[in-house]
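$ ./design --mode recover --in tokens.txt
reading tokens...
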């Protein structure tokens, strides 16, 4: 029981810590601005009532609420729902009228309202800056926008490419000098802006929608000195079941040798742990295509690998041997803290299976493999059995877990015979190359601001996509998604947790400035209208305006929470 409860409690604490940090900075912005403007602040609370613990310093009660969602700054004359004269007297009796929020000049009220969201932006800049200054070990693909694989019939696969002469953009008339992006291509910029990785490219496709033309500058290594530069004008389109616009490329992870099996072709060829594989048969080879490259080599064939060993370039020839493998199928066991599979622990769980293989064998995603060929299954036992049966079969005993206490899927045990494909392999385990990213303070501040602005831009484009239906409202998430994202980020490393916290903070900055009732942006609209009319809005209007806002926010929270639940249930269903 402790093995289940303790990890859950740790995840919950991480989630609450992130949420509290976001709320604290937001409310602290309102609080400081109110104090500077001379507004009476009765309470500064992290969390919602009832009050659990706190202390009073001066005129303000600093406390923590029992409900760990949200927080508030209680100011005289500024309420989410208008108070009656009796309620106002009870709360703020004796407070001089000149210290009431509603009696302050409009410009001061606007400062108080805007400072909350603005502090969320400040928090994001600080967090991005922290990552930049301290530095972190990240996959090379996170620090470099190189093309890994190109999907067949995708925009990238057929993109026209025109040679560039220096920095001058070429004319895009006539026949292109080349067609299609290739593995190893480095994307220098998109629409005149540099990008950090392929994820930035993917966001540009999703957020700008199908049919939008993008100007892309690409560098391609030729192996003959300086790389060539190409200009490519390309529009994303929907190419798969995700229904999202894509250019059709994956990121490029450079292959590093993690382990070499004894008496394997890799060992015979002299490959060693730590070797960096640059090319295979003269072409850049990303991690995502590494196994596929060897699988396609004819029996008895060989391949030439260009490697980097401790800074020294080398070329070796490897002759793969034939092993068994179930193509279109992946079953993983227990995953260690470094994200790699522990081969002698855990029951293999089916994570990937192609539809045709699932239909043929009856195996589904998330099925657990409890036996292989009549013996207890571990990831290592499963791998050994499959590798020793090229062209044959393996017998798998499957335990299918219940979903939602058996209401959606009943538990089931079955045995399946699975055909094993005959492929080539070299007996080497690869891993992605990582790099340590750190910036001096002089560059960290501009980098932090750039990251924050990119996050703001992504959030605004997401809102635009929702309005114009380029992005489905079903993609929106609520507290459960934030919990899931933050805890997974924490498991990936402190830098990922800090990065996702910064991005959520930017989302709060933008969201709270929307001109909707209850939100800070809605209050800004009210105060601007008052300044234009030169007199307060009626209490009846304000009450109706806030009531509409509360209903809208509650409806939104119910909707995103429903999305979260559906998303979680879908993850459990094969």
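writing sequence...
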């Amino acid at each position: 029981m402790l093995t289940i409860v303790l990890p859950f409690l740790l995840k919950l604490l991480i989630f609450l810590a992130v949420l509290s940090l976001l709320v604290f900075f937001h409310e602290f912005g309102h609080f400081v601005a109110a104090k500077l403007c001379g507004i009476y602040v009765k309470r500064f609370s992290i969390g919602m009532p009832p009050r659990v613990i706190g202390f009073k310093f001066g005129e303000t009660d600093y406390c923590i609420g029992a409900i760990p969602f949200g927080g508030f700054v209680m100011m005289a004359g500024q309420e989410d729902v208008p108070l009656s004269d009796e309620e106002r007297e009870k709360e703020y009796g004796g407070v001089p009228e000149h210290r009431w929020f509603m009696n302050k000049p409009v410009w001061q009220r606007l400062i108080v309202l805007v400072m909350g969201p603005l502090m969320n932006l400040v928090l994001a800049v600080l967090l991005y800056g922290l990552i930049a200054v301290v530095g972190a070990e990240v996959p090379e693909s996170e620090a470099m926008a190189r093309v890994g694989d190109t999907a067949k019939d995708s925009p990238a696969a057929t993109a026209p490419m025109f040679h560039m002469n220096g920095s001058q953009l070429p004319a895009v008339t006539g026949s292109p000098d080349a067609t299609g992006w290739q593995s190893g291509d480095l994307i220098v910029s998109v629409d005149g802006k540099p990008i950090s990785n392929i994820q930035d490219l993917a966001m540009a496709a999703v957020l700008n929608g199908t049919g939008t033309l993008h100007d892309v500058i690409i560098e391609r290594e030729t192996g003959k000195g300086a790389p060539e530069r190409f200009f490519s004008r390309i529009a994303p389109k929907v190419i798969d079941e995700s229904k999202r616009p894509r250019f059709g490329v994956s990121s490029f992870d450079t292959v590093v040798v993690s382990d070499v099996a004894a008496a394997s072709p890799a060992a015979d060829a002299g490959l060693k742990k730590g070797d960096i594989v640059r090319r295979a048969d003269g072409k850049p080879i990303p991690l995502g295509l590494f196994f596929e490259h060897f699988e396609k080599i004819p029996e008895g064939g060989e391949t030439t690998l260009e490697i980097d060993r401790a800074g020294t370039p080398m070329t070796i020839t490897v002759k793969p041997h034939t092993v068994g493998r179930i193509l279109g199928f992946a079953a993983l066991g227990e995953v260690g803290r470094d994200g790699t599979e522990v081969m002698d622990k855990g029951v293999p769980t089916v994570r990937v299976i192609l539809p045709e293989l699932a239909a043929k064998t009856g195996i589904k995603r998330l099925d657990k493999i409890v036996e292989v060929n009549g013996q207890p299954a571990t990831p290592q036992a499963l791998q050994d059995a499959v590798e020793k049966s090229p062209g044959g079969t393996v017998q798998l005993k499957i335990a299918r877990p219940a979903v939602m206490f058996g209401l959606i899927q009943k538990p089931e045990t079955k045995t399946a015979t699975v055909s094993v494909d005959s492929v080539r392999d070299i007996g080497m385990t690869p891993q992605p190359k990582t790099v340590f990213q750190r910036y001096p303070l002089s560059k960290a501040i501009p980098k932090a601001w750039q990251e924050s602005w990119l996050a703001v831009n992504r959030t605004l484009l997401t809102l635009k996509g929702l309005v114009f239906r380029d992005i489905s409202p079903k993609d929106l998430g609520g507290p459960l998604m934030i919990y899931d994202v933050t805890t997974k980020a924490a498991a990936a490393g402190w830098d990922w947790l800090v990065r996702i916290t910064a991005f959520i903070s930017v989302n709060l900055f933008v969201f709270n400035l929307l001109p909707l009732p209850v939100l800070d942006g809605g209050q800004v609209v009210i105060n601007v209208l008052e300044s234009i009319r030169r007199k307060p809005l009626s209490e009846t209007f304000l009450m109706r305006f806030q009531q509409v806002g509360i209903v809208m926010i509650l409806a939104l929270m119910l909707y995103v929470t429903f999305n979260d639940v559906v998303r979680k249930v879908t993850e459990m269903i094969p």
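exit 0
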